[in-house]
Amino acid sequence: MEIRHLRYFLALGKELHFGRAADKLFITQPALTKQIQQLEEELDTKLLKRTKRSVSLTPAGEYFMQEAEYLMNHLDRVVDATKRKGEGEEGEIRIGFVGSAMQQIIPSLLERMSLKFPTIHASLDELNNKDQLNAIANDKLDIGFVRLESVHDGYQQKVVMEDSFSLVVSGQHPIQPKDFKHLNQFENESFILFSNDYSQEYYDNIMSIFSDHNFKPKVSHRSVQANSIFRLVERQLGVAIVPSALQGGIDLDVEFISLDHLPQRTKLMAIWNGENRNEALDKVLRLL
């Protein structure tokens, strides 16, 4: 088995179409078919179900694709890290984060890294919680910063920040911070919230705020991007409840009303794979 067999299979597994996969690989369709046949013969296992109209993965194919993706991502990281070491760097740390982490946590971490480990290169990728978990599982990220209450077995975690919530209203809204008394003043408003795709636990935490105030919110829009939520609020299409840390660096006509008197809190956690052998990760973890 050679590396090209894995790359060809991954391309086909994603496209589930020999013609499209061959085009992406810049090879002919018969050549791709031959490579996949060689791979199945070596494994003595069928990886694909083929009909005249469709191609799909067998259970063995689904497993092999997941593991092959991990292997290829890991190989790419090893190659890149080797080159960086050859150039005098200590390596690379691949960091994923939700938007609110960029307000304080990520800049502070990068600043400490530049002082303590100046030859570690950091690459940043803003992703939602679910995508970060998948990227860490497939060795596309070394560490992620997520808003979750807990993570699955196999991940290490550390709470790096606990935050209160804030209500966000348009600068033109009749109720401004000085007029705020309680959340029930907004009982008839439309709310713009982070989608439960962002995190079901986070979404449930927000909904518990409304339950404590004995009303069910009218949710007009959902998004996984904070900037989208703020722009909708600015256009007076609703109000929002978000982590208070997000108010830093906002250049929009919106106002934040602190809800820190409420018991609900949201956690920002660092998560990583405990079996990750990246030396740069071990060094960065010391800075948390």
TrEMBL record:
Keywords: DNA-binding, Transcription, Transcription regulation. Residues 1-58 form the HTH lysR-type domain. It comes from the Bacteria. It holds the Pfam family LysR_substrate. One of its GO terms (molecular function) is DNA binding. GO terms for cellular component: protein-DNA complex. InterPro entries: LysR_HTH_N (IPR000847), LysR_subst-bd (IPR005119), WH-like_DNA-bd_sf (IPR036388), WH_DNA-bd_sf (IPR036390). Belongs to the LysR transcriptional regulatory family. This is Transcriptional regulator.
